[in-house]
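Homework-ish question, so no full write-ups if that breaks the rules, but can someone show me the predicted structure for this set?
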Amino acid sequence: MKELPQTVFVVDDDDAVRNSLKLLLKSAGLHAEVFGSAPEFMSKYDAAQPGVLVLDVRMPGMSGLELQHELNLRGAAIPVIFITGHGDIPMAVEAMQHGAFDFLQKPFRDQDLLDRVQRALTRDTEYRAKLRHTDRIRERLASLSPREREVLELVTQGKANKMVAGDLGVSQRTVEIHRAHVMQKMEAGSLAELVRMMMAIARQP
Amino acid sequence: MSGPTTDVLALLEATFDAVVIMDDRGRILAFNSAAEEMFGYRAADALGRNVSMLMTGADRLAHDEHLLRYLATGESRVLGRGRDVRVRHRDGSEFPVFLTVARIPRTDPPQFAGYLHDTTLRRKALATLEKERQLNHLYLDLAQVMLVATDRNGTVQLVNQRAGRVLRKQDGEIIGRSWIDTCVAPEDRPAARTAFRNLLMSGSEEPQSCEYHVRAADGEDRFVTWRGVALRDGENVTTGVMLSGEDITDQRRAEMEARGAQERMNSVSRLATMGEMAAGISHELNQPLAAIANYAQACARLLRLPDPDLPEITGALEQIANQALRAGEIIRRIRSLVRNEDVRREPLDINGLIREVQGLLATDARVHDGRLDLDLHEPTPPVTVDKVQIQQVLMNLVHNAFEAQGNIHSGTPGGEPADVRIATRLTDGGDVEVSVNDHGPGLAAELEQKIFEPFFTTKPTGTGLGLAISRSIIKAHASRLDYRANEPRGACFYFVLPAHVETPT
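A: Not a homework solution, just the prediction itself:
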């Protein structure tokens, strides 16, 4: 899979704030794309693009909070850093409750913003890596036959081959063959690794 | 049987009292014209008949018996003694008289004269007097004022019920005691004494007014405004005073509360306006400050790079300057609002004033995803106004208009934009009408006047003061802030400012 470059997306209705942010991010060696409104961002954003969203809370039309809500509905996992002109605590609380990565009050120190952006990018990278990992597990899981799938479920519950054979009404030998196929298809070196894989996809829907 | 002599009869006719003379058997011998009038019999009809026909009840039945007993024993229950009796008119009606009976000297067999004095009139007079007295009491008690009469020494002679109720005392606890020492609140006694003395010494018939507290039996002080007159006897000697007092405690309290509410309103209005402005201003100022900080920090970073992009840095520095000027402009506008706290009114161009408001409300419009349009009549005559106050009114009205529309569009994408229009136009009289119009839901008819009342609000977090204050400001400009429905929908708040007339100096 091809790695897309990380981008800092900035959405702010104030031209001066938006453009100054773009320059600041650029001066720190980051790639930034700026948008004057939430709908403009939504129309151009592709959830596959890794990065971080720097979002003004108060904007005409669609506010920052509404944009966050919209992203959540679409399952977009991009981390969001809110910036606001007000020390608006209730808004901050609401944003954080809905999964905002952080909250900054304007005007801010460049380092404060850059640190947060950096942390958010790291988290996005990790998250996307995890996502890729579980995607791969799911792909392998999909290649199992129904019988192999049953065997996998029973052995990851900790049952010995003999018990699995009893449960499925087949010979122990047959179970051993299925189990070997499962380990091979799932690219698992041990039962423990197989269990970790199942737990990973259980955590990550 | 011989009757009275003619000169006696002549005498009988001269008296106003009825006189009936009878013999020893009770037969009527003489019946004067006053008796004719009293009983309705003519003398000719009465003569010779038994006197008992004029009597009632027990007297009538027992008269002959009494007469016989007297004649036999000399024992009398009536002779020489006057008494009230009831007698009987020819038409059967009964009425009271005062009767005196005497034996006529030197008559044998004896004759008796009865003098009958009609007490009906006297009774009527007494009854009238009594009724008047009761009526007077009724008047006193019906009076909504406290009434107190005292003698020269200030001892209470009379109080009405109202006074008793205010003082929570029985009449007996007031009458016969010193008015001032018993009923006036201790702190006000010197004042009450002075007023009392002045009243006694005044030669004038004009009532005099004063105010002081009375102390009720339960210790509560009531504030009373008094009118007093001096009472004089026939020789014009002052005998005392009559006071009529109105308990204005509740009224005074209501006035104080109203004044308090007004003052509270004024201070809240200042705070509310300042608070709303402060929120808007802080947002407005934060934008250029944030941009300046970003640009400056970006410049510092760019300059640290090995090969700095100087044109880019120059551009950023220009932006810093622009944003600093933008912030300065915002501050200048705030200063022009605050500085003129108590300026006098001056004739000025209302359209210019409105344009400034448009600039001040730019943020408000943006936040509500709306537009603030102007529809100004040019030219307008100057109007004499307090600029800041009128601007505050307009800001308040525009803010309300955006909020009213926000409720229906809620600023979602695709919703109609919230538009507010400030318009000026000339009235037929050449004055300037200023109106703030929106396309929101407008007002239900029952709310049209209510919304101007202090503390009435339709907003969850409203103070209910904006429109009340706005109206009082416009009122102070000899005009009236009013509401009408906007066409085709929405609300329109408007007021008319009189055109400034140049006075020759």
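Now go work out the reasoning yourself. Hint: The interface with chain A takes residues 279, 282-283, 286-295, 297-299, 301-302, 305, 312, 316, 319, 322-323, 326, 366-370, 411-413 of chain B (CB under 8 Å).
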